[in-house]
Design the sequence.
């Protein structure tokens, strides 16, 4: 038995599924997870001495590669000054200013500790600001595990949502309506049937939790127009796309402005830090300035904020990183397409789908959750395990994304493309 297997057995005695987040259990790919000992640059090293070329990048934060020396040095120094103070620090001001410089829509921002907390709080601010209760989300979009967002499309025209998890009261789901991604009509219908009741539309401006699915031309612009027409807010959940697609996130790449944005992952440089922000009139509703309550013991934690500041400073000082990681991701896209897989890519964020027809090298398009659900998950699992056997770690689920970091050199990308090419379908 390997050390990972031993640890997984021990972990299973004390933690649900032996992990602290379900996807890490590798259940979708039919094997036990490896346990990581350390990481550096593009690699993860497990407790059995195996090395993996990492395309998960901790689900997005790792845009600079693991253990970036400049970030580590700054964090080590910050630790020596104390881990948490429960009082404001200059660093929080510096990070807030950096976020606002990168994302012009952000006139005011609140730092929190997870993407879940950021989206939950942004939705509460939207409800508090508009005085309306209902929100619209999209099937296949994931916004963290807060009750009101762990819902899925129910049946029936009203597209009332139903809980997508045990333990979520039906009442929470009732205030969340579910539309189909890239389907303007499904949104229009909900807006008109719930006239005056919709506080906000919340979405991933490039979806990455049903695999990567891009907004069709005009979709985001339509959402901008219809929210303005009906007095609702537009919330971009940029926990993945923020600072990933570009320094300015989805607004920089699409030109569409949102009323609120949420951030996570990269903004914390790999530490537990996230944020929500946007229009000052909306954010002014948040306590202690306004009536929308939101708080957090470790919000704006000085060590986590340090990691975020260093990461954003490097990205701002080296904008060529974005061109570099996009170029590398484009090579991967070409390699996957040659194998007949359907690839959706936005910058350095991509997914290769085993969509219907992939065996005949003619995989169908994947434009929404329904399309993604038709993919061949067994074939994906085989592909995952083959890549892992060649020392390449891609996300252990067809519904997750692939991330490229600044540490993925030409040689490593070529090695990956060769491995994809050599795979006999
Ligand atoms: P966290 O609470 O996990 O920091 O963020 C929740 C969240 C919010 N919004 C979007 C668009 C997200 O992708 C996420 C979390 N992403 C997943 C990966 N798809 C995190 C991985 C996991 O759950 O372990």
Sequence:
């Amino acid at each position: 038995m390997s050390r990972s297997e031993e640890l997984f057995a021990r972990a299973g005695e004390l933690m649900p599924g032996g992990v602290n987040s379900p996807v890490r259990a590798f259940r979708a790919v039919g094997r036990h997870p490896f346990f990581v000992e350390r990481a550096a640059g593009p690699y993860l090293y497990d407790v059995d001495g195996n090395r993996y070329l990492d395309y998960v990048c901790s689900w997005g934060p790792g845009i600079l590669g693991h253990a970036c020396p400049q970030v580590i040095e700054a964090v080590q120094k910050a630790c020596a000054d104390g881990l948490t103070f429960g009082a404001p620090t200059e660093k929080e001001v510096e990070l807030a200013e950096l976020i606002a410089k990168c994302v012009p829509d952000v006139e005011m921002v609140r730092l929190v500790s997870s993407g879940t907390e950021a989206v939950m709080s942004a939705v509460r601010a939207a409800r508090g600001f508009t005085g309306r209760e209902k929100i619209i989300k999209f099937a296949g979009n994931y916004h963290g595990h807060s009750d009101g967002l762990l819902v899925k499309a129910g049946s029936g025209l009203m597209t009332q949502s139903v809980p997508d998890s045990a333990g979520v009261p039906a009442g929470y789901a009732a205030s969340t309506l579910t539309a189909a991604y890239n389907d303007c009509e499904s949104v229009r219908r909900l807006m008109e049937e719930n006239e005056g009741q919709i506080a906000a539309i919340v979405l991933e401006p490039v979806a990455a939790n049903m695999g990567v699915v891009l907004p069709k031309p005009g979709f985001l612009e339509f959402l901008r127009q219809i929210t303005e027409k009906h007095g609702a807010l537009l919330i971009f959940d940029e926990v993945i796309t923020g600072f990933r697609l570009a320094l300015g996130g989805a607004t920089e790449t699409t030109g569409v402005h949102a009323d609120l944005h949420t951030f996570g992952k990269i903004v914390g440089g790999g530490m537990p830090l996230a944020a929500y922000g946007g229009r000052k009139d909306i954010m002014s509703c948040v306590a202690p300035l306004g009536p929308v309550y939101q708080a957090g013991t470790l919000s704006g934690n000085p060590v986590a904020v340090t990691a975020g500041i260093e990461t954003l400073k490097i990205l701002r000082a080296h904008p060529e990183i974005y061109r570099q990681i996009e170029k590398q991701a484009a090579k991967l896209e070409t390699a996957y397409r040659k194998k007949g897989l359907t690839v959706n890519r936005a910058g350095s964020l991509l997914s290769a789908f085993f969509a219907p027809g992939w065996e005949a090298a003619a995989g169908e398009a994947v434009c929404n959750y329904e399309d993604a659900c038709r993919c061949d998950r067994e074939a994906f699992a085989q592909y995952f395990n083959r890549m892992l056997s060649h020392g390449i770690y891609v996300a252990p689920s067809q519904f997750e994304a692939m991330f490229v970091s600044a540490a993925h050199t030409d040689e490593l990308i070529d090695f990956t493309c060769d491995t994809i090419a050599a795979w006999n379908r």
Summary: The mean pLDDT is 96. Residues 320-338 form the longest helix (19 residues).
